[in-house]
Structure formats: C-alpha cells, structure tokens
Amino acid sequence: MNKKQKKVLVRIILAVVLLAAAEAAARLLPLPWWANLGIHLVPYLVIGYDILLKACKGIKNGQVFDENFLMAVATVGAFALGEYLEGAAVMLFYQIGELFQSVAVGRSRRSISELMDIRPDYANVEEDGQLVQVDPDDVEVGTLITVQPGEKIPIDGVVEEGTAMLDTAALTGESVPRHAKPGTEVISGCINKDGVLRIRTTKEFGESTASKILEMVENASSRKSKQEAFISRFAHIYTPAVCFSALALAVALPLIRMAMGMTPEWSVWVHRALTFLVISCPCALVISIPLTFFAGIGGASRAGVLVKGSNYLEALADVRTVVFDKTGTLTKGVFEVQRVAPVALSAEELLQYAAYAEAFSGHPIAEALRRAYGQEISHDRVTAVHEDSGHGVEAEVDGHRVFVGNTKLMGRYGLSAAACDEAGTVIHVAIDSAYAGYILIADAVKDGSAEAVAQLKDTGVSRIVMLTGDRIEAAEDMAKRLGIRDFAADLLPEDKVAAVERIMGERESRGNLAFVGDGINDAPVLSRADVGIAMGALGSDAAIEAADVVLMDDDPRKLPLAIRIARKCLRIVKQNIWLAIGVKVACLALVALGFAGMWAAVFADVGVMVLAVLNAIRALRV
Amino acid sequence: MKKTYKIDVDCANCANKMEQAAKKTEGVKDAVVNFMTLKMTVEFDEGADRAEVMERVRANCKKVEDDCEIFL
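ok -> structure tokens follow
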C-alpha cells in the first residue's frame, strides 16, 4: 500500500469506530434529532470529506455525472431523509471499495511488470582495468562489456571471451538454457547462469531486444480492443441513463400514484432514486476489461508470445484459418541429411566419402553433408577436386576416385542411379567407377510441426493451408506428413499475397485468418492477413516490426498456445462484462421494486468489482 | 508526432475521462490513455507547439478529474 492508500485505511478504521459509537449512543440514550444527526455526521465527514470536496469542484467544472458528485448527492439525500446510519455507511463502503480496487490494481500492475522484468539496469564496462557499472543507455556500439554470473545481458552483442549457459525463459518461455561461447550472438534480457562473458555490443541499448520487447508490451494495451471501446462507450451513456431514471423514479412515480388516487410516498421513491445514484457509478465496470487484457498480454509474453495490442489478442482468439509459410516455419529452413542409402558399404563410409569429396564446396548441400558426417575433415586426404556446376563434384579421396552428384553426373559415367521418389534432393555417390548409393537431403521438419497442426485442429481451426515455393511433389509429401490437406506449391514470394487473398475470399463463415511466417521477405503478407504472426523472431527486428504477434522462439507449438491464451483472455473479458452489467441491472430492478436498499446496492457494487478484478488476474496464468 | 507522458490517476473511469478531455484539446490529433501502464500517448497536430498544447491538455484533464496529474 502506498501513502495515499494507508491514509484512506486509517480514515476507514476511524470512521468504523466513530460510526459504531454513534449508533450505540443513538440506541441507548434518548437523544434529540439534532444530536443524533451530529454524532452521525462526524464519521460521515471523516470518511467522505474528500468526496464532498471533489463533488463541489466537479460542479464548478460542469461535471454533473462525476461519480463523486453522485455519491455526495446519494448520501446527503439519505441524511436529509433521516437515514443517518445509511448515509454514513454507504459512504464508508464506497471508500472501502475504492481502496480495495486501488490496492488490487496496484498489485496486479506490479506483478505483471515483475513478470516482464527483463529490463537491465546497468552494464559493466572496463575502465582502467576496473569494472564500472554504467547506465546501459551510455554504452556505445562496439564496446566490450562484461556479464557476471547471475546478471542480465544488458545489450545485444557477440561473445568474445568465456562460455556460459544462458537462461532465456523471460524472453521465450523456454526453460532449457542455451549455451554461449565465443562467436555466439547473444541477446539482451537473457540471464547468465554461470561463467563470465565478455561481449562486444552490436547495438545500442534502445535498439536491443530487451528494450524493443518492453516497449512493445507497454504499448500493447494502448491499442484498444472492441470490448474496451464498448465498455468505455457504455460507461459514457450508462451513468446519465441511470441518473435520469433516478429522476423519473423520484418525481414521476409519486405523481402517477397521486393521479391514481394513492398516497404519493415521496420519501420511499426519493430513497430508491438515491440508491440508483449509488449504482450508477461505472468504475467497477470500466476497470475489469483493460485489466484482463493487460494480464492476458503479460501472461502471453511470459510464455514467449508477444502480442502487439489488445485488438490483436482479440483477433487471435477468433482465428479459424491458419496459413503457414513452409520454410522456416514448419521446417527448419536448413538442409539436412534425411537418409543414407548405401550399396555394398556402410552408411558411415558413404557419408564420409561424400563429405570429403565436398570438403571445399560452399554449397548448402555440401555443408549439410559435412554437418551430417560430423567429424573433422583433414583436407590433405582430398586431391584433384573438380566441381561441375549443376551436376556435382569429382575428387580423389584416399586414392579413390569419387563422384558425388545428381543422376546426370552418374549417367555421364554410364552408371545407373537408384531411384528415390521421396521429397528432397538426392545425391548419388560413385566410388572407383562403381555406384555406391545415395544420400537424401531435405529441409528438415521441425519436431513440433505435426503436433502443432494437430493441436490447431483441436482448438477449432477449421482450415490449415501451407504455402511453399517447392515443387508440388515435395509440398504434397510434406503436407501429408504434417496432416495438412490444403497447400499451394510453386509459389514465388510475390505470389503469396495473392494466395492469402484468395484464401480469405474463400472462407465461408466468420473467423479470422492468421498468416505465420518467419518474418523474412513476408512483410506484405504479414500485414495483409487479419493476424500476421512472425516466428523465431528473437533478434530479427524486421519481423518484430511487421508482425502483429511475435513468437519469440521457433517452436510452432507456440501458435496453438497463443490461440488458447487469447481465447482464455477473451472468455474472462466476456464473463466480466456480463457479470458487471448483469449485477448492476439486477440491482437496479430490485431497488426499483423496493427489494433492496442502499446497503445492498453498495455491497453489490463493491462485490462485483472484487470478483471482476480477481477474475481478470486469472488471465495472467497461462 | 507522437509523445508519451507518465500520468497519475486513481480510477479507470477517470482515465477514460482524461482521454476524452485530451482528445478534445486544441492541437491534439489523437490521445490514448493507458490506465494499466499509467501512460498517456498524445499525437499532436502538424506544427503544434507541444509544450503549450500539453499545458492545455493538463488543464482540461484537471477539469474533468481534479485528482489527476500529467508529468510533463
């Protein structure tokens, strides 16, 4: 609790004691009416003087529907009707409610910012052989900074010295630590778990990942959702509407009763009208919606899903069509050896010969072969290398003549290559003029892709489409393996916008279309889709700029997770809207019919707010 | 031209009222008040004097909610 809140708490306790004493005195002693009024006015003024003051200022500034003014009218009215206890108690409960709200909101504000506690406070820079802590804002690009165990990396950079395990959980939601060694690019916001790292910065603090993410999350709740806009519009008309019905209740109903020959019962109706004024305060209604979205966005970023605005969280909850870009999203985007099919020698040997023959090539296929072989290559075992672009390579390895290449290369030497109809690139190998087998190389599917597709179907995504620039056979094979029925192949990057537009035109019912890409070359598609999602964006500024939702690591399973988080958040928002409006309307009805008094009204008001705030906090838990 | 200011206000509805008041201020193109982060983002009209406009924004906000503050 802050100072302001503590002061209110003291006043509440004081008012409770004074009110209890006043009530006891009024019951036990035969007091004249003015003394009774006096002893009730003391606790009333203790608890409500600021409200009365604000009400006066409000009138001066023409704020008739200011809630301070409404509370003042309601309670002063109660005193005028001789309901001293009620007048003081309603003010008391109102203040208790306001205090609770202010504490609860402050708490959640703090717990959400603690979740997002990735802001580095300082950077260690070496000056004259001494480590000095400086403001990370003052560190220039290319400075050597030191990160000790337990500290956060303040600025993006490249490790020059030292090795360490990095905890990236605050950024990606991924609990497995990453290894950093000299040459590794590291991003700010990661926590160094062990080992001392010396890092050469590559960016300014303001441009570093941690700053960018924080800026994004903080700005996120400024992009308001439809629900938020609805509730502020609702609050705008709700208060005047209730006030006018209060007026109608106080004036029109007694007059009607008089006209019908009944006793007008002025005081009964005025009392009910005053109770209406208590219910007309909109704050409980207005607080819960932005709080829920704020908690939802906070919870999502904790899980490694950055949502750029409440409106995108809302759109994400209603995604019914998902379009995946294949490369880099469902697949790793790098070539990998998928299968080794040797003839008359071991797979290990075949891979070894191929890797040696390709020892000097910079082609991605050659790199994949060497990676799969995985051992140091001693270049002096390879001689007489001749690269034949478009066909393959010939080389002398340990005195053997080795050909590595496609079917055409084999054909040139009169060798018949084995057939392989799997998707990918087939590399044939011949050793000393004899066919030795083939190696299948393809873009590897990510571990979680098939599971992500299955989970998306479970969450109610009705259409999943894969876009790729690959040949149709390769696309078909990949789609089948992942359980995707819809795909479009042979697409040039610029065809993708048209493809997404076509899919958007085809959808039969409501629901949004989400496009998932790796953020490279697909900015136009990302902005064309209802929700543009960039994946594996850690460190990629372009993707963070272009997308509406950013998945921090490259696990496709984050997408169904993001949709589930969004749905949960929206569910809570809807519950809160119905809860708040429902209870308010029910209260108005009960009060109008005389079943509930001012006590019930203020209890309902405060109670709904407590429930709505507690409910909103649930969105934080993913 | 957009700029973000830190604000202090106690209730969510008051924040909404501040937003309305700021939007209506002369020289302000658009304004968004974020109650959760206690920030006000103001987009100014072309060529408006920011300091002067913000003084007016503050005065207007004080009118609708006496108990608020904008840290300029």
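The first strand of chain B starts at residue 2 and ends at 8.
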